[in-house]
Specification:
The complex is a heterodimer of chains A (150) and B (377). With 150 residues, chain A is of the alpha+beta class. Helices cover 32% and strands 23% of the residues of chain A. Chain A is built from four helices and five strands, in the order H-E-E-H-H-H-E-E-E. Chain A has a five-stranded antiparallel β-sheet, covered by helices on one side. In chain B, helix 3 runs antiparallel to helix 4, helix 14 (294-309) runs antiparallel to helix 15 and helix 16 (344-359) runs antiparallel to helix 17. Chain B has a domain at 343-377. Chain B has helices at residues 2-9, 15-36, 63-82, 87-102, 110-123, 130-133, 146-168, 174-186, 195-200, 206-214, 221-233, 236-251, 264-281, 294-309, 320-341, 344-359, 362-374, and strands at 11-13, 142-144. In chain B, 66% of the residues lie in helices and 2% in strands. Chain B contains 17 helices and two strands. With 377 residues, chain B is mainly alpha-helical. Chain B has a two-stranded antiparallel sheet with strand order 1-2. The chains are: A alpha+beta (150), B mainly alpha (377).
């Protein structure tokens, strides 16, 4: 067992120490191999975290976003997304990062008298038009994709 | 099985883990202060947050929390790099740093995750003193350091995936693949007796150097990886000589010598009171940094240092607690000097003002703008 203090040069590890270290190393290495592979099973292909797909931050996409909410009386109201959250979150929402979109829609549902929230991302590329709608009280937003660009 | 055991538990020059640990900790300290802290103003805006992991759901880190965690991590990292690292302190740095980036998707810089993996490896590095890592003779001390090999394999896995995804996209992948092979092979160079391998292994450094200089990458990743490559690939004798020259002042530090004047009890109580005094005074330097959370972060670092010193502090006749407190003091001072001499503080307040303006929060914008004007370069 290694001490907490500064040590003399390490001695050759004993059999038990080797077995313990070996088990830790095996788990650590296997996890590092498996975690990037989870990308292949992700719903959100824009989510490239922990995959080493790129070593620089992803470039901000050129998408326009607008959001609206529906109140109990049936009235629809536009939401100024950029007034509510930081610009970086707006970029995530516009990029269609699923976790952020879901959290944003859930957050809008916390206001009194809101029945549903909708968010629309218009992109100039192959992503086309994507609409996310959440009925307040529901768990997951419904996503509609129209691939034809505007 | 034997070959695998030899791979993980074979000897490496102790100079390598010694220098790697310190170099990464120093870079990490300045990286958190200069590159991460200026981003702090965006945290907590609109009480909205999405974390990297679901166990943070519902937690909205404020800018004070984020900057405080970074101040804690940076000061502790630098103090550990300056004087004998302690395993508990390294574990705290790993936790603090990981908490810093993982509490929000606002920090999605890929290499911050890599640094957390490295810090986990560092927890299992031998906590070598300079005297243990660099003998007086020309012969470089060697020992079995499985965590160092794990560090190299971790790096190799990163390059492997960079190469694999590049191949999947139909891009060139031979350079990151050469880095991967290089890291897997070079961790054995100190134990191989064949002169040809000892001569060839250091040449593999060309692959990571070319890759990091030629490819656009986030933040300080090329700086970290270039430094790491130089320490891992260089011939043992070069690393040993470099380390000996670098640690000459540390190896000469007053420590275990018998006191010339007065008894052991008198020196023990002097050390005790001076250490306590230093632990209280050092975090006070952070009052002049003028960023939210920094005072709390530095105070927590002093508490962490107290935990690290543990029984050492309690009436020991050794000087070691004093050097530890001095390293904490140097860490806090370095934070203050870095913040005063760089644009980090200005950037923090300017970004805060711009965002508050955008959201129409005039009161916050005015406060941020006032501070930004105060610290404008």
């Amino acid at each position: 067992m290694a001490s907490f203090e500064t040590e003399p040069p390490p001695a050759q590890p004993s059999g038990t120490a080797r077995r313990r270290s070996g088990a830790f190393i095996a788990v650590f290495v296997v996890l590092q191999f498996l975690i990037p592979l989870t990308y292949l099973t992700r719903d959100d292909m824009a989510d490239e975290r922990f995959t080493w797909r790129r070593l620089s931050e992803a470039a901000a996409p050129a998408c326009e976003t607008d959001a609206s909410l529906e109140r109990l009386d049936g009235e629809r109201e536009a939401i100024a997304v950029e007034k509510l959250i930081h610009q970086d979150w707006v970029a995530y929402v516009a990029q269609g990062r699923r976790a952020v979109v879901e959290a944003f829609l859930q957050k809008q549902c916390e206001a009194d008298g809101v029945v549903s929230v909708a968010l629309r991302n218009r992109c100039d590329d192959e992503r086309g038009l994507r609409e996310y709608t959440l009925r307040c009280g529901g768990e997951r937003a419904h996503e509609t994709v129209r691939t034809a660009a505007r | 099985m034997k070959a695998l055991e030899r791979y993980w538990f074979g000897d490496v020059a102790l100079a390598r883990p010694y220098l790697l640990l310190r170099m990464v900790l120093v870079l990490l300290a300045f990286d958190t202060w200069l590159n991460m802290m200026p981003e702090g103003a965006k945290y907590g805006v609109g009480a909205f947050n999405v974390a990297h992991f679901p166990w943070f759901d519902g937690f909205v880190p404020s800018s004070g929390f984020y900057v405080g965690v970074l101040a804690f991590t940076g000061v502790l990292a630098l103090s550990q790099a300056l004087y004998r690292p302690h395993r508990i302190a390294i574990a705290l740095i790993a936790m603090g740093y990981t908490l810093g980036w993982s509490c929000s998707l606002l920090d999605s810089v890929p290499y911050h995750y890599l640094l957390s993996l490295y810090l986990v490896c560092f927890v299992f590095f031998p906590m070598l003193s300079a005297r243990a890592a660099f003998s007086r003779s020309e012969r470089a001390p060697r020992g079995s350091v499985a965590a160092y090999v794990l560090f190299c394999v971790t790096t190799a896995i990163v390059y492997f995936y960079v190469a694999a995804w590049a191949a999947a996209r139909g891009e060139s992948y031979w350079l990151p693949m050469a880095c991967c092979v290089g890291y897997l092979a070079v961790s054995m160079q100190d134990r191989v007796e064949l002169p040809a391998i000892r001569l060839l292994a250091p040449m593999l450094v060309a692959a990571p150097l070319t890759f990091h200089l030629a490819t656009p990458q986030a933040g300080w990743l090329p700086v970290y990886m270039t430094g790491i490559a130089l320490l891992v690939f260089s011939p043992m004798q070069w690393v040993h000589t470099f380390g000996r020259a670098l640690t000459q002042p540390v190896r000469g530090l007053l420590d275990e010598s018998v006191p010339e004047q007065g008894g052991l009890d008198e020196r023990a109580s002097q050390v005790f009171y001076l250490s306590l005094f230093g632990l209280v005074i050092a975090p006070m330097l952070s009052m002049f940094v003028d960023l939210p959370g920094v005072k709390t972060g530095c105070s927590l670092t002093a508490i962490a240092m107290l935990v690290v010193m543990g029984r050492q502090l309690y009436f020991t006749p050794r000087w070691r607690p004093l050097w530890r407190v001095a390293s904490l003091f140097a860490g806090c001072l370095a934070l203050l000097v870095t913040m005063s001499a760089s644009d980090a503080r200005f950037d923090y307040y300017r970004e805060g003002a711009l965002d508050a303006d955008r959201r129409g929060d005039t009161e916050a914008a005015m406060m941020f703008r006032e501070k930004a004007e105060r610290y404008a370069p």
